[in-house]
Amino acid sequence: MSRLRWPGAALTAPHTKRLLIERTWDGASIEPAERASVWVTRADSGLSVAVESAFHGDAAPTAPVGRTPGLWEHEVVEVFIAGEGEAYLELEFGPHGHYLALWLEGIRRPASLDLELRYHAERAGGQWRGLAQLGPSVPLPPPPWRLNAYAIHGLGSARRYLAHAPVPGAQPDFHRPDSFVPWEALPA
């Protein structure tokens, strides 16, 4: 990930964890070519998130590049970070440069919809990479942290919902902090 480094971002820091998205939302294995990886780095200056994923060719949102409400309706990689209590952070990143950052005060209860961050994405050779830098003004849940990461792509009946840690239920529901993985249990 060194080619996509924001100035001052330390993606190889000892406070980096990797979430490999290698299953469907309900736990079935997926082909290696469909997998995605997410690296989350904690630092005094804030949080960095790096994404590497296959590019599935879904159309870009019609909104300008940047903060994009409803990004989950497009090709996207999502990261959820929960801590003590009910509040959690939802981060969404697309291959075309769109992002969304939400602070929720309970399951599906958005408290802040306009969180800003720096995000850059690039596509090449059937892959895409993205790098986000969240500054100290973006709220983070109090530790200990639990995380999960998801990838979504495709249209209609071909829509795919993929996960680092599977979630229970009859349909994909990523707002399940009880299914998130403790920070300490994630590989570096």
Describe, in plain words, how this protein is organized in 3D.
With 188 residues, the chain is mostly beta strands. It has a domain at 36-163: Immunoglobulin-like, CATH 2.60.40. Helices cover 0% and strands 43% of the residues. It is built from no helices and 14 strands. The protein has strands spanning 16-21, 23-24, 36-43, 46-54, 66-67, 76-82, 87-93, 98-105, 110-112, 118-124, 127-134, 146-153, 160-163, 181-182. Strands 2, 5, 6, 7, 8, 9, 12, 13 and 14 form a 9-stranded mixed β-sheet that branches. A 5-stranded antiparallel β-sheet has the order 1-3-4-11-10, with no helix packed on it.
Summarize, please.
The chain is mainly beta and 188 residues long.
Assign the CATH topology of the domain at 36-163: Immunoglobulin-like
Q: Could you give a short account of the major beta sheet?
A: 9 strands, mixed
**Main CATH class of the domain at 36-163:** Mainly Beta
Element-by-element helix/strand order: EEEEEEEEEEEEEE
Radius of gyration: 15 Å
User: What is the end-to-end distance?
Assistant: 14 Å
Bin the strand percentage. Answer: 35-45%
| Low-pLDDT segments, ≥5 res | 1-11
Q: What is the overall number of helices?
A: 0
- How helical, in percent, are the residues? under 10%
